Amino acid sequence: MVVGIPLPVVAVALAVAATLLGDSMLYAVMPSKPEVWSLSIPAVGLLLSANRLVRLVTNSVAALAFERFGSRAPFTFALVLSVVVTLAYGWSTAFVVLLGARMLWGTSWSMLRLGGFWTVLDEASDDNRGLLMGAYNAIVRMGSVGGALIGATLTDAIGHRPTLTIFAGAMAVAGVVWFVSTRGNRPVERVPSSGRAETRSGLVAVLADRRLLVTGAGGLIAGLVFSGLVTASLGFFLKEHFGDKIAFVGIAVGVTSATGWLLGTQWSLGLPLAPLLGYLSDRFGRIPVTTGGFALGAVGLTILALSSTVPLILVGVLVSFVAATGLTVGLSATAGDLAPPERRSAVMSSYATFLDLGSALGPLIGLSFANLATLRGMYGGAALLLLLAAVMFRVAFASGGTGSSEAVRTAEE
């Protein structure tokens, strides 16, 4: 164990973190520098959504692969594929190639994420599921921090192509380290299933169980607003407000670097907050953490919709980022609470599909119009949607229903 976190959770989280370097860099750089790939802003929105749209299909494929081959082979394949697509981001400006790379990355991420979920849930109990999910998310987001902060800064200094090549090399090294260090470990346990029928039954379970359905819908909304709309549009939002440079406290910063630093701050917040919020959800229940996340996110989006000065925009962004961390932990832990062991892979992949649908729609909606006034209106609409989600989640869980977690039962009392 590492500070109370089982070693398998730490190992898989570090491997997944490395694969996020290239993807997170694109969110920091592409919307503010589309010209280096010869892209328009709507094309950027499509590329940043493509990997999420394809996961609506590949999440089920990943579940089938894990059921048939176990966790190690699909996870290893996904690690290799992440290196290939990162090189493609750097060495191609052809839209078709970039689109194909983004779709392959979506396939890879379906397997990487499911491998992470499986490891956490296999190691967790009702007493620490939120803590372990929070710790896993915190470690994984180290990759997002590095991709956004280092990626944006290096792109301004040496260009996007050398930066992405360096990232691909780092991923390869991390993949080899994971493979060697876990070679002697037992594989993640699997419950025998009937393949495709089991995957379909997972989706049926989500749709039939009111609380699973509300959890999935909450994930869709959170993905739409935070992973999709805010993350993808932040660079464009800042550039439209301030141009190529942002002046703050007498210092002028390039908008690409500023976007990277802000996104890095978002994921850095997860390092201390995700385990803490996970522990609090174990101790006091999922409802306060999750509904609080939705409400706080509504406050942050309202500030962004109404603000035009650097200090207020920073406040809005940071409040939104804290809310996103709480929702990531609270919703994923709730899904784990409600996923029966015999259908864990299918239910978790179905839950992930809700997340991906929301996060795929965000960039498409936010960057399709390429207009600051419209984007402000979308931020305001997103705030109302988050408030609706808070009410929906509270009502669904406070009124009872089927469930399997002590944390959920505690929240209802």
Structural class: mainly alpha
**What is the CA-CA span between the terminal residues?**
33 Å
The count of domains is 1
Whole-number average pLDDT?
82
CATH first level: which class?
Mainly Alpha
Walk me through the structure.
By secondary structure, the protein is mainly α. It has a single domain (7-185, 193-412), classed as MFS general substrate transporter like domains (Growth Hormone, Chain: A). Helices cover 82% and strands 2% of the residues. The chain has 14 helices and two strands. The protein has a two-stranded antiparallel sheet with strand order 1-2. β1 and β2 form a beta hairpin. It is globular. The model is unreliable at 191-197 and 401-413 (pLDDT under 50).
Write the layout of secondary structure elements.
Layout lengths: L6 H23 L11 H29 L2 H20 L3 H29 L5 H30 L1 H22 L14 H13 L1 H33 L2 E4 L2 E4 H30 L1 H21 L3 H29 L5 H25 L3 H27 L7 H7 L1
Antiparallel strand pairs: 1-2
Helix pairs in contact: 1-3, 1-4, 1-5, 1-6, 1-9, 2-4, 2-12, 3-4, 3-6, 4-5, 4-12, 5-6, 5-9, 5-11, 7-8, 7-12, 8-9, 8-11, 8-12, 8-13, 9-10, 9-11, 9-14, 10-11, 10-13
Descriptive keywords:
14 helices; 413 residues; 2 strands; 82% helix; globular; disordered C terminus; Growth Hormone, Chain: A
Summarize the structure.
The protein has 413 residues and is mainly α. Helix content is 82%, strand content 2%. It contains 14 helices and two strands.
